[in-house]
Amino acid sequence: MNLPNLITLSRIPCMFLIVGLMYCEFLGAASLAFWIFILCAIGDWLDGYLARKQGLVSTFGKLMDALTDKIMVVGLVVAFVAKNEIPVALALITLCREFLITGMRMVAASKGVIVSADRGGKTKTLTQLIALGFLLGAPMAAHDWAFFLPYDLSLFTEVVYKIGLFGFVLGTFFAVWSGYRYVMKYRHVVFSEGDI
Question: What's the Rg (C-alpha) of the chain?
Fold first, then answer.
């Protein structure tokens, strides 16, 4: 197990920690959740950078990087739905797309074809992660910043939340669009009989 892969896999327990903090009431919990999320986003860039620089790019690394991104997004989306901060319909679209593409990747891998993330998939993931960052930032401003600053931050908090929600709607559009592109590009691999 090399360093890039360890950084990749570390995002899975971090997702549980972030979700747990989302439900904590103590002062600073929302800020901790936000900054751990930011560290995970930096780690998402760092693992790929280190793998390329050190010549450690591997099939396992490519697959796990995509999978941990999905785990992070799905875990946070479920938590936000439970807190009534993301519409259930958007979450279901996101979940269906992620399971569909993961299933396609598994079938393709069983036939010796690696389905790497393309530009559309990366745009979708980046948009979703930025949106989730804003959604995590709203309670940080509402609870932690408001405690220390002598200002009414309710309007600011609402704007941050709405930016996050709009970003997630946009991310859902990219999810459907990129999912369609994956299906069209790799349908001959997934739906062909036997090995290719």
Answer: 18
59-82 and 88-110 helices, crossing angle to 10°: 160
Domain boundaries defined on the chain: 3-190
Residues 118, 98 contacting (CB under 8 angstroms): no
21-78: per-residue pLDDT in tens? 999 999 999 999 999 999 999 998 888 888 888 888 887 777 788 789 889 999 999 9
Q: Which residues of 87-109 are buried (b: 16+ CB within 10 A; e: fewer)?
A: eeebbebbbebbeebeebbebbe
The span from the CA of 82 to the CA of 103, in Å, is 26
Is the entire prediction scored with pTM above 0.90? no
Q: Pseudo-torsion of CA 48, 53, 54, 60, nearest 10°? A: 30
CATH for the stretch 3-190: 1.20.120
Q: Residue 152: its pLDDT value, please? A: 92
Element (H, E) at 101: helix 88-110
Amino acid letter, 105 = R
Conformational region of residue 77, where left means phi above 0, alpha means psi within -120 to 50, and beta covers everything else: alpha
